[in-house]
Amino acid sequence: MGNVRRNLLTVAGVIASGSAVVAMVATPAAATTYGAGSRGLDSFTYFNNDGEILTSEDNNADGHGATAQWRYSGSSTVNSYYNPNGAGNTKTWNLSLPENRFIDIRACLQDGAGGTPWDCGPWEGASTG
């Protein structure tokens, strides 16, 4: 009887560990894309946390360029990325950010690569993958 009980406990342990492995494999992390618009919605910024991809989109043929900005949540250091490609076009940057960090993104207009971003929309929260 002792051997039967020991064998049943061993089988139960194998089944329990097997289901734990299945549960871990069956729940992959999902990618999330965050978005933010400039005040007049002339530009948009997107952040995809799968690979930390930042995209700036210019939506208006108004002679202004678009800029994507990001910062770590709570930080005053702002990182700007200018999109000179014109209306209806995007520019994408592959960032290298630490995992599981909260960031803020926003979209702005900007005149030329050396210009100052303006007409920025509100900061929107995002998270790295």
Task: Describe this entry's structure for a reader.
With 129 residues, this protein is an alpha+beta fold. The protein folds into two domains: 1-30; 33-127, Immunoglobulin-like (Sandwich). It contains one helix and eight strands; from the N terminus they run H-E-E-E-E-E-E-E-E. The strands form two sheets. A four-stranded antiparallel sheet has the order 1-2-3-6, with no helix packed on it. Strand 4 (65-72) and strand 5 (79-83) form a beta hairpin. The protein is globular. Mean pLDDT is 81; it is low at 1-28.
Could you provide a short overview of the structure?
The protein is of the alpha+beta class.
Assembly context of the chains: single chain
Mean pLDDT: 81
Q: Could you tell me the radius of gyration in angstroms?
A: 23 Å
CATH homology superfamily of the largest domain: Immunoglobulins
Q: Helix amount, in percent?
A: 10-25%
- Main sheet attributes: strand count, strand direction, barrel closure: 4 strands, antiparallel
Number of helices: 1
The count of strands amounts to: 8
The first-level CATH class name of the largest domain:
Mainly Beta
Strand order of the largest sheet: 1-2-3-6
Low-confidence stretches: 1-28
Head-to-tail CA distance between termini:
52 Å
Gross geometry: globular
Integer tally of domains: 2
- From the coordinates shown, what is the CATH architecture of the largest domain? Sandwich
Structural class: alpha+beta
N-to-C order of helices and strands? HEEEEEEEE
Give the strand content. 35-45%
